[in-house]
Amino acid sequence: MTYPDHFDYDRPVESYAEELHELLVDSVRLQLRADVPVGAYLSGGLDSSATTALIRHFTKSRLETFSITFEDEAFDESAYQEQMAAHLGTSHHMVKCTYKNIAESFPRVIWHAERPVLRTAPTPLLLLSGLVRQNDFKVVLTGEGSDEVFGGYDLFKETIIREFWSRNPESPFRPKLLRKLYPTLPVSGARAPFYLEQFYRAGLTDLDKYYYSHIPRINNTSRIKEFFSDDVKTATAGYDSLQAFGRGLPEGFNRWHHLARAQFLEAKSLLACYLLSSQGDRVSAANSIEGRFPFLDHRVVEFAATIPPGYKISGLNEKYVLKKAMAKELPVEITRRVKQPYMAPDSNSFVQADAPEYVAQMLSPENLSKTGLFKPAIVAKLVDKCRKMSQTHLSFKDNMSFVGILSTQLLAHQYIHDFQLPEPLARDRFKVWLDFSDSHTPASENRKY
After folding, report:
1. Domains in the chain, start-ordered, CATH in brackets?
2. Mean predicted confidence (pLDDT) in 387-392
3. Which residue in 82, 262, 389, 412 has its CB near the most CB atoms, within 10 A?
4. pTM: predicted TM-score of the whole model, two decimal places
């Protein structure tokens, strides 16, 4: 995916929206081709609502939708899900996700992801794909890719604000724009202004860095390294991940608009390496479900790259051209609602009174020392902090650190220290081995057991 150096603002946004609508209709029709029934995820946000609406209005396919609801109201979007299901008249199915569900299912997520994760968000989607399987569906359409392609993430709006702020770094007014982005941020009102300004001031004037848009996030995530053991720090001391990542950038990247650069980096990193993998195919395939992504049709992506940045984010109104394209199909409550990023409860899920025993075992000094990746004493302080604040929302840094450490410990346990095939898989592979052995053994040497 590449972006032009210049955009055609002479072409009105309505024209872009009309062409986008035609492409999305055709993409949805193609993605519905299957010899089995195809369902759709319905989160209540713009992307899944758009996909579902296009199925209803432009195809004759049977339409059943599937949603996650949350016990923790800070993450729940069930009101919007029910509104869209009623608006489209779908046969709607919902699964409620609790702290306990996340904690109990998390080891299975790591088994299928085969890598550490920093968020629990794949876990509810494992439960959701299980709901799809229970209802005898094997394929679902989802809204993945829309945020990256049409500028939906807060990170993109942050980049626009930071670039504007960088022209007058000492302005007391420009950073106040950040407060408009986070009406649902789980940080108390008194802390929010200070937290936001300090967080996003990092690297404010480093416009020459290719990763300018991601500097605050990189700084935040990098703090997890504080928990690394001395051996890990020594082993990784000479590795510069930012330099390595930068070597793969397209020619002309530095001439692109700052929004285009941010979109490319997000698609190359989070979308490809996490959203479509650990949070996508891995947890869907765990329940033998195939996910399909109409927004990632190559024609949609290529066309979206030509849309001017000001049509993707108009002021601070994200995915403006997509909202224009879908205005006739969706209720205004959906197109005008404040975007709520998909997230799930993180550390809170593992420090409740009924938390599974494996949590304490994986984070014990003995297991941490056995794995050798993290400092037990510092991890113990983090765990204690999470337990004391189990009824509140911790910082993203603490949550990511907790989930990252726990998932790494689980990965080491499941694949190194105590590797065991799941029972059905182990039995099936043993049967295949027996069949193979019998077919390659002379009849005179066959034995009965």
Report:
1. 1-345 (3.40.50.620), 347-423 (no CATH)
2. 83
3. 262
4. 0.89
